[in-house]
Write a structure and sequence with these properties.
The complex is a heterodimer. By secondary structure, chain A is of the alpha/beta class. Chain A is built from 20 helices and 16 strands. In chain A, helix 19 links the parallel strand 15 and strand 16. Chain B contains 21 helices and 13 strands. A five-stranded parallel sheet of chain B has the order 11-10-9-12-13, with helices on both faces. Chain B has a four-stranded parallel sheet with strand order 6-5-7-8, sandwiched between helices. In chain B, strands 3-2-4 form a three-stranded parallel sheet, sandwiched between helices. Classes of the chains: A alpha/beta, B alpha/beta. Chains A and B meet through helix 3, helix 4, strand 5, helix 5 and helix 6 of A and helix 2, helix 3, helix 4, strand 1 and helix 6 of B.
Chain lengths: ~500, ~525
């Protein structure tokens, strides 16, 4: 179902020039490196052809005062990697705000009795006061850990997610964690994810990965009988149930998912991961570090895959199956065949309603490339994409997905994104909550691509159907046609289509 | 296969399908290493007991599910209420992403603010360079009339001095010398968002008023609304009332248009807000009224310092609180309260009389910001209800004393308890051990509704999971009608649900109530 198209690189180059002209010289010089137009690249081998080059600088400091959309290391650790581990209590250690604003916002679905044996949608904070800053918070942290043990005795562990002040006032959360873990016989993990570390969420992912390596692996005797088809799913946070819609497919092709990191995960699933045969990594950006470690230390191979949209799902399932041999490959073909009628029906229903619609994306560290083919499966065209916190290796991977002439923007600023959208006027923008309302005010349909706009799952075949429905309802809602008062003459926008 | 193109199931129904239920059951059994069901049930039941409540309320260090945010959120909200003003938060950048998301999720509106994006090197050397570059970029890119600077806790811990940094930035021509850059230090480890609101408004007033000659304009009034998730509805309603009274007034901080811009094809980064000229003139007002005392303690001190009379209220909602506001306005201005407003008042009282039998004796738990909890407790008592639990995580001992005085003033407050500094996990124990009929709070209360079965009424910031409530006023007599109707709907919906079982309870499924 792959589409052949080229984007208007000349227009995009002009837009880049225009936005840069508005910055003070120093800022323009720095921003220039983050903006580009994808160019045709060399044909490449087995991993799929590299269709373009996205030549931008990435993973460097944001410029002050420009309205970066990025978050911080704490968001990358507590918000992304650790927060979803459901049977642990994650303490937002520092002032109240960080935990408050991130409370229940990532939609990491889980099953459990919240407050009793699971703690995902709760906000545990040490609520630092001035005296904690002045005298240090280690004593307070000790007391907090004791109080958690008393009130939430079924927790299977804790993590201490450091907020900015912790690293600045010189607290020793490692010593507190070590002592208290011994005293209570529990896993307690200090994570040094102070928000000022690094340039974005990305370093928080890395620090969180390292904390798993240093404070979880090999700390307990893990009783577990490994089987030949054991895999871990790494970097699926079960947003709106994504990991469940993926797991069902992996089980159907005959694999045993022994751990899911970290959506709907328990600590046990993290601990036993090194015993699996293969790590399947979805969000490469946030968890490649631990996969590399498990490869080097325990010999667990890892493989990237993509469960957005039928083209990528099929390719990924086959690639995974190849790793396990004929038995799994045979089952995989059956599974692909089983879901083919669903895929065909979804595409038949929605493609005519979406064909040729243009899309601009701006998301985190994976989806700006990973979701592209899912849109193309519906006949849609990606005209621009960019990442909040990608590294160079992500932009290399992006080359497998984007077409010549695509507008590429790294760590885009509020100003740039607004001007790019105004200039391109795509039919849909997929980005985050901060971008949603400005875009909709312009009369352009929008879907949140972090939270699935309170919908989901979008992974797997079941998720693709929901994704197609959601894109359709965003673009074809009648509200876009009502923006202009009829007594004010201006060109009409939108083209509503009733739901079928 | 549960999914089909004809009837697409999303998460809520999809995972209830047999394939998924079985998959999740097996996941739990084989891979999660869960506690035995009985232990989970026992612990769940234990959390409902008085014994657990005592442990829970005895907590000294741990805070679980607090109902408060940090200072800079209040400062960003405050700055959004002034003409073409960009918030510039000095410190780590992640904080700003959080404030913007938080405000957008509540208002369903854009929320703009920039950060000085300080990282490790700034932690060592200070953030002066970030301020100098940042102000220049913000000024040039976003064309503001004013940049309001506040701080994250990072900048506070390392001790960056905003005043000298801003002066330095002006020396380096980041912004023109005469460009307005008011500021406020807003450490997240002191107070809460209501204090951040206070110091930002005070910072802006000081910026414009300091050293200026005050010529009192008799009968003119400044109104400071305070941090208010319902500012869109409330400010407009109050202006309507004050216009009816032909009052000469200025709202100091008014985000009602900023957080309610129309969809007509144009994205307005800035809309409405108190004009800078009006802020300057407001120095001459005879009096400044605060609608939320705990949001404006420092600001009101400053207003008194410059020679203004001041008065403060606790979120004027309901009959008597609105009466007091209007009478105060009338007393200062000399303008009479017109007959149309008296009729409005009568209509609210009429509605309360019509519905009194459904409200009398109902027990409530109320939580939120200190002024709001005061207001709701007072209105609940006006309807014959009993505010059994009044909780403010950011409530002080002064608030506690004021609450006790209020509750002592009515027979409906005699069994009420006040809980300053407590969080929503404490509220959970209170609701299990001393149950109430209704819970009034914000979206976070939905977890209490789920666990304890107490119906939740969302009347307080933030409301993420219901849309557009904030567009309607809660203050004034009209607002009172809205609150009254919202409470009644909750009561009737619950009664209908409880009496809808065919042939079992539906004898009480009355058509007229």
């Amino acid at each position: 179902m792959s589409l052949e198209y080229e984007n208007d690189g000349t227009l995009h180059a002009k837009l880049i020039e225009e936005v840069l002209s508005q910055y003070p010289d120093k800022a323009a010089k720095r921003r220039k490196k983050h903006l580009s137009v994808a160019k045709s690249g060399d044909e490449a081998g087995e991993e799929g052809e590299v269709v373009s080059e996205c030549d931008v600088k990435s993973n460097i400091k944001s410029i002050p005062g420009v309205m970066t959309i990025r978050g911080c290391a704490y968001a990358g650790s507590k918000g992304v990697v650790w927060g979803p581990i459901k049977d642990m209590v994650h303490i937002s250690h520092g002032p109240v705000g960080c935990g408050q604003y991130s409370w229940s916002q990532r939609r990491n679905y889980y099953v459990g009795t919240t407050g009793i044996d699971t703690f995902g949608t709760m906000q545990f904070t040490s609520d630092f006061q001035e005296k904690d800053i002045v005298f240090g918070g280690d004593k307070k942290l000790e007391q907090i850990i004791d109080e958690i043990e008393g009130l939430f005795p079924l927790n299977n562990g804790m993590s201490v997610q450091s907020e900015c002040p912790i690293g600045l006032i010189g607290d020793d959360t490692e010593a507190v964690s070590r002592n208290k873990a011994k005293e209570h016989g529990k896993t307690i993990v200090p994570v040094r994810c102070e928000g000022f570390r690094g340039v974005s969420q990305s370093l928080g992912h890395h620090i969180a990965n390292d904390a798993i390596r240093d404070w979880v692996f090999e700390k307990k005797d893990v009783e577990f009988e490994a089987g030949p088809y054991d895999v871990n799913v790494i970097g699926d946070y079960n947003i709106g149930g994504d990991a469940w819609a993926s797991r069902i497919l992996l089980e159907e092709i005959g694999l045993r998912v022994v751990g899911n990191w970290s959506g709907d995960a328990t600590l046990a699933e993290i601990e036993r991961a090194p015993k699996a045969k293969l790590n399947l990594i979805h969000c490469y950006r946030s968890m490649n570090y631990i996969c590399r470690h498990m490869d080097e230390k325990y010999g667990v191979a890892w493989m990237e895959y993509n469960f957005f949209g039928p083209s990528q799902i099929e390719a990924s399932l086959r690639k995974i199956a190849r790793h396990f041999g004929p038995e799994i490959e045979e089952k995989t073909e059956k599974v692909i065949a089983k879901y083919r009628p669903l895929v065909d029906a979804v595409v038949a229903k929605y493609r005519p309603r979406l064909e040729g619609n243009t899309v601009m994306l701006y998301v985190g560290g994976l989806r700006p490339r990973h979701v592209i083919t899912a849109y193309e499966d519906l006949g849609m065209v990606i005209v621009g994409t960019g990442y909040e916190f990608a590294h160079n290796d992500d932009y290399q991977r992006t080359g497998h997905y984007v077409r010549n002439g695509t507008l590429i923007y790294d760590d885009v600023t509020g100003y740039e994104l607004e001007k790019f959208i105004e200039g391109v006027r795509p039919n849909l923008v997929g980005s985050g909550i901060k971008e949603k309302y400005p875009v909709q005010k312009m009369g352009i349909p929008f879907r949140q691509m972090h939270s699935w706009d309170y919908s989901g799952p979008y992974h797997g075949y079941d998720g693709f159907a929901i994704f197609a429905r959601d894109v359709d309802l965003a673009i074809n809602n009648p509200v876009w046609g009502l923006y202009d008062a009829p007594w004010k003459k201006s060109p009409s926008r939108g083209r509503a289509m009733a739901a079928e | 296969m549960p999914q089909s193109a004809e009837k697409i199931l999303d998460h809520a129904p999809l995972f209830r399908e047999p394939e998924y239920r079985q998959m999740l059951a097996e996941k739990k059994l084989n891979f999660e290493c869960p506690h035995p069901d009985q232990i989970v049930t026992d612990q769940r039941e234990f959390t409902k007991t008085w014994e657990y409540r005592e442990m829970n309320l005895a907590r000294e260090a741990l805070v679980v599910n607090p109902a408060k945010a940090c200072q800079p959120l209040g400062a960003v909200f405050a700055a959004a209420g002034f003409e073409r003003t960009m918030s510039f938060v000095h410190g780590s950048q992640g904080c700003v992403a959080y404030y913007r998301s938080h405000l957008s999720r509540h208002f369903k509106e854009p929320a703009s603010a920039v950060s000085s994006s300080m990282t490790e090197d700034a932690a060592v050397f200070g953030g002066l360079k970030n301020m100098v570059d940042g102000l220049a970029n913000t000024y040039q890119l976003y064309d503001p009339k004013m940049i309001a600077v506040s701080t994250t806790c990072m900048a506070e811990v390392i001790g960056d001095d905003l005043h000298s940094f801003i002066e330095n930035a002006k020396d380096e021509n980041s912004v023109p010398r005469d460009f307005d850059v008011p500021f406020a230090h807003t450490p997240a480890f002191v107070g809460s968002h209501v204090d951040g609101y206070d110091v930002m408004v005070k910072g802006i007033l000081e910026h414009f008023w300091k050293g200026q000659e005050r010529t009192e304009a008799g009968g003119t009034i400044n109104i400071i609304p305070g941090f208010d998730g319902f500012c869109v509805g409330n400010n407009r309603e109050l202006k309507r009332l004050l216009d009816l009274m032909s009052l000469s007034y200025t709202f100091i901080q008014d985000a009602s248009d900023q957080f309610d811009t129309p969809s007509d094809g144009e994205y307005r980064m800035y809309d409405g807000g108190t004009k800078i000229e009006d802020v300057k003139k407001a120095l001459n007002a005879e009096a400044t009224l605060s609608l939320q005392y705990y949001n404006t303690r420092k600001t009101l001190d400053y207003c008194r310092e410059v020679g203004q009379a001041t008065a403060s209220f606790h979120y004027p909602l309901g009959v008597q609180a609105t009466d007091e506001l209007l009478m105060k306005v009338s007393a200062i201005s000399g303008n009479e309260i017109p007959e149309t407003i008296r009729l409005e008042r009568g209509r609210l009282v009429d509605a309360m009389a019509d519905s009194q039998s459904w409200l009398h004796g109902k027990k409530y738990a109320i939580y939120g910001d200190p002024d709001f909890v005061y207001a709701m407790a007072r209105f609940v008592m006006e309807t014959g209800g009993e505010p059994t639990h009044c909780l403010a995580t950011n409530g002080t001992s002064a608030w506690q004393a004021e609450m006790k005085e209020l509750l002592a003033s009515s027979p409906f407050g005699k069994d009420a308890q006040v809980w300053p500094g407590k969080d929503l996990w404490a509220m959970r124990s209170l609701l299990f051990t001393e149950p109430v009929d209704l819970l009034i709070g914000n979206s976070y209360g939905k977890y209490l509704e789920r666990d304890t079965g107490t119906p939740l009424i969302r009347l307080m910031f933030p409301i993420f999971d219901r849309h557009h409530h904030h567009r309607f006023a809660l203050m004034g007599y009209q607002g009172g009608l809205r609150v009254l109707t919202t409470i009644l709907d909750k009561i009737f919906d619950k009664l209908d649900r409880e009496t809808s079982e065919t042939g079992v309870t539906d004898y009480s499924y009355d058509l007229t109530r």
